[in-house]
Amino acid sequence: MSGPKTLFEKIWESHLVDVAEDGTSLLYIDRHLVHEVTSPQAFEGLRASGRKVLRPEATLAVPDHNVPTTDRSRPIEDETSRIQVQTLEENCREFGVQLFGMRDRRQGIVHVIGPEQGFTLPGTTIVCGDSHTSTHGAFGALAFGIGTSEVEHVLATQTLIQKRPKTMRISVEGTLPFGVTAKDVILAIIGKIGTAGGTGYVVEYAGSVIRGLSMEGRMTVCNMSIEGGARAGLIAPDEKTWTYLKGRPMAPKGEDWEKAVAWWRTLASDEGATYDAEVLLKAEEIEPQVTWGTSPQDVVPISGRVPDPKNAKDEAQRRAMERALDYMGLTPGMPVEEIVLDKIFLGSCTNGRIEDLRAAAKVIAGKKIAPNVQAMVVPGSGLVRYQAEQEGLDKIFKDAGFEWREAGCSMCLGMNPDQLSPKERCASTSNRNFEGRQGRQGRTHLLSPEMAAAAAVTGKLTDVRKLVA
Amino acid sequence: MVPFTKLTGIAAPLPMINVDTDMIIPKQFLKTIKRTGLGKNLFDEMRYTQDGQEVPDFVLNQPKYRQAQILIAGENFGCGSSREHAPWALADFGIRCVIAPSFADIFHNNCFKNGILPIRLPQETIDALMAEAQNAPDPTFTVDLEQNLILRPTGNEPISFKIDPFNRECLLEGLDDIGLTMQKADKIQAFVAKQQAQAPWLYSAGAGA
Fold first, then answer.
1. Which of A156, A294, A460, B10 has the most Cβ atoms closer than 10 angstroms to its Cβ?
2. How large is the ipTM?
3. Is the pTM of this model over 0.90?
4. From CA A146, how far away is CA A154, in angstroms rounded?
């Protein structure tokens, strides 16, 4: 008999359709999320070869990257964006795939709506033509991003050709200090392992801190796995997972629900299961984090200083740091709390869920944003937006001076009109601070929703703990 | 897919680490619904100024490297987003081989679907090849996938490399892997029958349910 197994191994082995002698595996895919940017060429490929979508009911589509976050009653102004969204609508009609259109309240960022609808389930394999598909790993699913050719492969065959990845367990033990959030945990992890530290691995996040996180917090952690190089990150499902999913429109019902939960209870890694690599972080050592550079690994505690390239480990690193400092317009040694901002972006598949909006609203309630910043909230979905309005959060944000927008990816990558101008500096709850990511020559500092709210109030990077003592 | 057997061409040196897919092809070019035509915007923000003028220093703008078919780069090449537009842009420009110490996983997979050969080599070897690409008057290399060898412009000892056998076969033959998988339709059907019995909730619930 086989020995103790990890959560990853249980999911992987229960989805193998075929394994070749050299280990190349054909993996069955349970759920496929589709958006407008990475799918048109895949549908075109199906058409060209006379193939169909094998399981439309296992496929869910939504436009999110291109959609404007302002007035939704009119067609999209930018022609190429409009064509891409229309192409998705036409493809879904032709191939029988369910679509949440731009004016559907259920529309939102693909990684927010999957869990919200109960489309995301524990123990499943989930893919999407988007690297942040790792988000769904928060439910104990093996979820990862794929390219457009693979999107076409999954549409046609409901399978993917894969090599078995290695496993890494990242344990975060202890109790998070006051003011430290799931976002700070994952930024600290990426700072520790580096942006390529997880390449070739599937990461399982474990330890008391991870168990203590809400589903939203777990999604934030898993979301940024790819920023540490890992295609997938996952967390053992537990009571919180079923509580979150129960009654959601696309989740199992009745007897099937009971059967599902019974199976899900068996998914957690077995005692004694082993991993190819282990990483340990102590919660007490994690402070609120911000990034200073142009890679998500360029993290520094809010009490810290912009690093000096003189201390780089090698020549390549030194050159990269110098380039990043030049791009970001920062001086080595300056305290990060002195960095003055122009924009605040609260949203994205990393931090655009209801709990994120609640946390930020708590910090800004009764306060005003600083005169030097423009701030916007872009809820992760129409339903998150609606929920926030029911709770009066929109009013708190608007009273403070934030813009209250419609749902979408927005300024996380600026495929819609929400972009930074050259040299504009943004505190952003998103996931990537790459050169040009939020707009050509735009400067991005990644941080948590609470820290973004604090930055909005003071107009510079600020330790949120000073505002909410 | 166009088979990849042997490629002889200019190698361009790009001595940067963590070259991300936003650098390779910025988001404003992801709005296309085609796979072609992205070559002119490859590395757009490093290659052109804001008003569309070429940046003379950028490697692919230098006369020596304008026709490059091979790219030599630093570690973690292709990190970031899953956009297949990155290999599409490289291929459309004419680059069919990228040599680096390491690659991000999704980009690495995407290359093989587009007839691009990503080769991993140790840092010391990369350093040597980078120097040759920079200094050789004619930095023409030959990448021979049948022999798993890189022949160098300096005539120095050829470099051997390893590629996953399945991916190598697909490149050499120019195979369509959807076609390959569809030959296993029986196995997929058998899997579905088994899963439907064991996990019926995956079939009763879902989109449109």
1. A294
2. 0.96
3. yes
4. 10
